[in-house]
Amino acid sequence: MTDKRLKHLSFGRALFDLFSSMRFAIGLLVVLAIAAVIGTVLKQNEPYVNYRIEFGEFWFRFFEPLGLFDVYHASWFLLLLLFLVVSISLCIWRHLPGMLRDIKSFREHASHNSLRLMAHHVEVDTGLDLDRVKPYLAAQGFRFREREADGMRIIAAKKGAGQRLGYFFAHSAIVVICVGGLLDGNLPLKLRELTGSKAPETRDLPQSQVPAQSRLGRDNPAFRGNVTLPEGGTGDVVFLNSGQGYFVQELPFALHLKAFHVEHYSTGQPKRFASDVDVLDRKSGKVLKSATVEVNKPLIHEGVAIYQASFGDGGSPLSFQLWQLAGGTAQALAAQSQSTQALRMAERDYKLEFGDLRVFNIENLGRTEQATSTVAVNRFEQALANAQSVKAEHNLRNLGPSIQFKLRDDAGQAVEYLNYLAPFSENDALYLLTGLRREVAEQFAFVRVPLDKDASPATFMRLRAVLLDKSLYPEIARRTADTAFKGGGFSATNRQQFEQVTQSLLAQFGNGGFPALDAFLKAEVPDAQRETVAQTYLKILQGAVGDAMDVAQQRAGLPTLPMDGEQYRFLMDSLVATSSLFDYGGPVYLQPTGFEEVQASGFQLARAPGQNIVYLGCLLLVIGIYCMFYLREERLWLRTANGQTLLAMTASRHDAELDRSFARHVAALLPDTNEHPDERPHASP
Amino acid sequence: MQALKQRSPLDFAFALLVIFAGFTAFSRYREFMDYYEQGILIGSAAGIIWLGWFWRPMRVFLPACAAIAIGAMALYQGDLARGQAVFWLKYLLSSQSAVMWMCVLFFLATALYWLGLLRRSNTALSIASGLAWAAAGAALISKLVRWYESYLIGSDVGHIPVSNLYEVFVLFCLITALMYLYYEAKFQARAMGAFVLLVISAAVCFILWYSFDRQAHEIQPLIPALQSWWMKIHVPANFIGYGAFALSAMLGMAWLLAVPAPTLPGGNRVALYGVATLLIAAGITFQLKGAEWFPKLGAGSGLVALFILAVAGMLLLALNRGLLASFLPKPETLDEVAYKAIAVGFLFFTIATILGAMWAAEAWGGYWSWDPKETWALIVWLNYAAWLHVRLVKGWRGTVLAWWSVVGLLVTTFAFIGVNMFLSGLHSYGSL
After folding, report:
1. pLDDT tens digits, one per residue of A233-273
2. Dist CA A326 CA A461 (whole Å)
3. Is the CB of A387 less than 8 angstroms away from the CB of B96?
4. Chain A residues 212-231 with CB within 8 Å of chain B
């Protein structure tokens, strides 16, 4: 475009030229691609608090208005898409008429000179056998038109005109897809937010109290929102996330969850999530439709698709045995998962915040010991053997139901527990697992509570109470000394000393378990003797714990437990557990004893009126791309005049394929030609 | 009719065989398939016939692989444990043995392609080509046998082996090799194989590491989100795209080594070699220590190392333009094959993305969620759309497009593996 023309160009025309240019469209695509990358690198739609923490208040204030936390729904992103639609539409508008003319035309008016200028042409001094030419062209798939004038005859042939239509299809497809996408996107809602008639709710309110300006009526054409229903629950709204808040979208019907099912593979991976639902009339509550919604199998009702999105615990009744760690006594406690209840314990107020009940806990406990070898050569062989088999042996174990909860004291400090209901068995001994952690990011540290012959923690609790009761230490120490000096041979002073040591050991242990004993050793015993002294102390303590058990049984009016290998192990486990429980963080151990599972199912409900438009666009796109790349537009001219024949060819793509078909047509149409078509100059620059 | 008349008896025999196989599968397994899967069966039968007619060697290759795979299935006699006991299964035909053979054969083929290229030896090149065919055969057999093995683990476990990163890597090797072999025969340019087999060998290295270090070859049951007939068409279509893009990138690299460029002054060259050396050192260090220094990256540190090495490689490529000019096929051929591969890849990638969107509409509740995988698929798509635009509309050729297709492979690799490693999202089936 010259400067002179530019001056005469109106502003509108210049704008049209800019918007309809490929350069502009490609530029837009690049910007879109970069924006899209930002959206993938920066995790989108997290709670805004997380961004505040990650970027700090300063950057948060910059990023938030830019919509970086929800790039794909930011106004500027939608504006870019809109520009793209306009630009491509104008591009089509600009090129379509010429293209249609081109498709229709046979170009039979091509001049001699223009044909000779084509890279693929050949001229021979013979006439043309029309009876042979026409059937040949038809057989090759050409359509043609003839023109005669001034003793000159020209046959203009073409095929594969659809190649040009491909351009039209592919580009209009982008427009169609974008229009469909914008219909389903949140553009209408965004506009209503801009005009101030709607605003997202940021407070955590019961659904029914959300004010009208954050509620969207049933007339809202497109939405995509979530709702979680417990078994037996009914809902008639979904929640749409929007920036820092949410909207409440009313549904044209109510959804009732009858039951939720989870099935597992034998390896513990989930196999099937399914919700039995009823679709109810909002007013009358009449059942309109009953169905099972599964992953990959949505239910569609009145244009609203109901998807299985997530699942969880819907508030299950639970029962516990509440063990007071101070006295070792127990009482029953009834509770419900996903709820909070108060607990008064040792003159302090606590809050129990129950979380999830998980019925299955299938854990991979790693390879069994025989399966792992430490020798390098064996390891290599093992790797080879493993690589050969598509099925591996896994040490899987179902740990049974578990309940997670927090115990919060009156100062607001919370400890989180994960308690298992079923006993965990190891080498024929039974334990109850209870895990605790003080930070959400930490792993649970587990304490194993040893169980007695009745699979109850009662015996351990009794023993623990005795081990912590200072008034009983002299009695225990006396019994321990009795046992130790049964054979005689030691003096009375030795015995007294022994009793004192035992008492002080019990006192140290009763103060803080093994860590306290360890600290005592480090403080009082010189380095050189520590090892031996520690061994002796341990032996004494091991003896004392048996006597403590006897005392505990006696106090409870129960027969003493016979000492054997099993009992010995129980006592040692009890020492470990007692020691661990010093760091338990709360005054109680909640032993789960029963539950009645009530599951919850998370649904996503969506209405996307633009979906079929998008699919139509996709179809157009595939057709368009196919036409553009796999149809070849070829044009061929045969011009005879004065006993001379000229054959010229062009194609939509000047490539080796054109060279080959040119050679083929020349050989078929002009068999007498001396000139070898391969010597034609190559078309590609 | 015209088209049918040109068909040879072998064409019809092949078609009948495929139809027979389709009917057998249909009658035996009808009750295990829903309507869509029955539709896919009919569609694949038609597609296989078309493929055999379009590319004649397939008329022998596909039935031969199928026959061997059926033989392997017969040897199992319905008992997976026989895979470790029966000689033929243990050393040749169980899916894992076949994969190992595929790895070995691809390595050998790569070595021989390079030997043939550098010694200009046609014998070596034709042996290499045969090895590549054998490797592709092993890959296809392993896929078919693995499919069967998955049902031996449990009838509820069985599924088509395109469900995780390990399985699709084997698929990638298979598709890339077959596409390459097609172009090799069509353009009579065997020396291209030296480059294309490099990318396949890289994938093979990954498969070996993934299998030995991570035991990724174990067959896992499908999570509910993947239990859909869409997987059967979405994943293969995607890998035709990825395979084609990888092919074009390697040809772009070959083109750059086939066409000389004005050389830089000596001082700059030395400096750039220095930079390349530093980058290589950095890449290797990162590979060894990255996981330690940046524990957050995890297995992703390997990918970061790969990208650093890729930049170094591109630098070396730029410094050695035209190095193999006298060994490689004509640049025009390389350019044309690269274009054709991108055209095929673009079409299939478009179809795959659309199929993915339709699947997402059924599984995730919306055809487009701006999930990282979706977004990166869009970016890859835009990249090649732009490539095709400048070539077809602006008529660009040569250097820029060659470089662009090489860089395109990095974008594609990130979309393929990087997204699964670094960016969490709905599409996290293939995480390491």
Report:
1. 999 999 998 877 889 999 999 999 999 998 888 877 889 99
2. 10
3. yes
4. 224
